[in-house]
Amino acid sequence: MNVLDHVRDMAAAGLHSNVRILSSLLLTMSNNNPELLSPAQKYQLLVYHADAIFHDKEYRNAACKYSMALQQKKVLSKTSKVRTSTGGAASNIQAQSLPSEIEIKYKIAECYTILKLDKDAVAVLDGIPSRQRTPKINMMLANLYRKAGQERSAVTSYKEVLRQCPLALDAIIGLLSLSIKGAEVASMTMDVIQSIPNLDWLSVWIKAYAFIHAGDNQRAINTICSLEKKSLLRDNVDLLVSLADVYFRAGDTKNAILKFEQAQMLDPYLIKGMDVYGYLMAREGHLEDVEVLGGRLFNISDQHAEPWVISGCHSFYSKRYSRALYLGAKAIQLNSNSVQALLLKGAALRNMGRVQEAIIHFREAMRLAPCRLDCYEGLIDCYLASNGIREAMGMANNIYKTLGANAQTLTILATVCLEDPVTQEKAKTLLDKALAQRPDYTKAVVKKAELLSREQKYEEGIVLLRNALANQSDCVLHRMLGDFLVAVNDYQEAMDQYSIALSLDPNDQKSLEGMQKMEKEESPTDATVELDGDDMEGSGEDGDLEGSDSEAAQWADQEQWFGMQ
After folding, report:
1. Can you give the pLDDT at residue 85?
2. Where are the TPR repeats (predicted)?
3. Which residues pair with 90 in a beta bridge?
4. Mapping DSSP to helix (H, G, I), strand (E, B) and coil, where does residue 182 land?
5. Which residues does residue 84 pair with via DSSP β-bridges, in sequence order?
6. HSE-up of 16 (CA within 13 Å, CB side)?
7. pTM for the full model?
8. Cys staple from 54: which of 28, 62, 165, 278, with CB 3.0 to 4.6 Å?
9. Separation CA 72–CA 66 (nearest Å)
């Protein structure tokens, strides 16, 4: 047994720090006396050394050492001369027992990916002939291609993964996200479904995710619910998180929160999807719960974007926008594909008056999640904030035509129409259609109430809001009902409505202001009320909150440190 055998055994035993020290010493000895190690032994030792450095998370150094190993492999291929080992015994290492050159290239690409040097990673993997690419190489390439917007190449790589591993479900999701038809994807798994028992659910699972990526939220909900009700898949955390996310996309906040909580109870260490859950809780005014959730997730892992996003949402809805900006930037550093982090940072930038920078972030979120309406809403809000009504109208019409006439798209289009006096009647028609489809859709109710307020139709507005509150309790709806009741001089019930609103969200400044104004003026002389539908967060996304930020200077410095402005 020679020294290299000891290095190999320590590497296999996970003694990486020991491998790093010993291999470094042996490599130095070999450099000073090339006769000590054969080319094959030196190649193997370089790989062990690079692996140990990789384990220490020194990825740039590891990539360099792996590249040195590849250079040594070229030397090895030119000679078959066997050299004596450091122990003096002849070594007879067979070529097939040496680390694979393809595996080394994969490790280099992995280092580059972690370092966010995606182009370098693609260059390394592209250098591997197609026939020699393993499933994990094709999977990495597919993800890199998709991230770079090279959809055709991504599709080819995902399909190659499925050809070799037909149950690679993440590859299936990747194909569906690139608009490949569910039927085509299902056909690639048909043989394995028919040959293995208890896999009949897979075709339904594929159908569910096809609906999700096509933006057909209601059919996605129905399909996932049918899967979740099956005894063998009941209480599956991944399905529950997907169901919660689709409820969120459909604007059903109540059911989204319910399913997220159910998933969290089943898996207390769950991280996936918790950024959306934290956002919804913050938007509903449960800031103490959001703070607890963020702290708990930081204890699980601070290397994921989700806890940073949750803390950022807490700051955003506490009106500390500079801190929210910093936390959103940190989340993007950890995961540049985090849609929720991009939306958080975009909303913070918008509320700080940096609209053009916000637009960049909302557009990137749209590219990553083309079926999420909150991405489009954020961009539309930016256009409206900069008086770009024409751009906002074009975007709203595009959403309406692409995703169809549902309650959400109708409300988005109506929201833009409300900004132009010429299109007020069109806005009313659109809102009526939205409420005919979903009478409980909170954002449509709010926008309709805003329109009725402009027309001073207070009694009609009161009826609308009472009907909406019959089956739900929402801070904004209670506050708006209070405003309408003030307009018709019903001060006592108005006070009750403000109290209910503040019990749901103690941080709702407008409810507090309405209550304080009534307390100061026992007999108001002016019942005219001005409603602002833009402050409504009930089913829209990242709200237009206003307020001072006492931590602006401190967090602005940290943003400069992270270079994410």
Report:
1. 41
2. 237-270, 339-372, 475-508
3. 84
4. helix
5. 90
6. 11
7. 0.81
8. 62
9. 10
Cα–Cα distance measured from residue 14 to residue 11, given in angstroms and rounded to the nearest whole number: 5
Burial class (CB in 10 A: 0-12, 13-18, 19+), 209: buried
Q: pLDDT (tens digit, 9 = 90+) per residue, 46-61?
A: 999 999 999 999 999 9
User: Over the range 305-334, which residues count as b (16 or more CB within 10 Å of their CB) and which as e?
Assistant: bbbbbbbbbbbbbbbbbbbbbbbbbbbbbb
Burial of 303 per CB tally in 10 Å (0-12, 13-18, 19+): exposed
- Is residue 343 within 8 Å of 365, Cβ to Cβ? yes
- Side chain identity at residue 276, one-letter code: V
142-144-147 Cα angle (round to 5): 110
Give dist(CA 436, CA 289) in Å, integer.
Answer: 34
Residue 438 DSSP SS3: coil
Per-residue pLDDT, 80 = 52
- Which tokens hold the place of 288? 């103490």
Dihedral over alpha carbons 224, 472, 447, 241 (to 10 degrees): -30
Radius of gyration of the chain (CA): 29
Residue tagged 């809001």 (tokens): 465
Element at 485 (helix H, strand E): helix 475-487
Q: How many CA atoms lie within 13 A of 541 on its CB side?
A: 32
Q: How is 18-74 classified by DSSP, letter by letter?
A: HHHHHHHHHHHHHHH-TTSS-HHHHHHHHHHHHHHHHHTT-HHHHHHHHHHHHHHHH
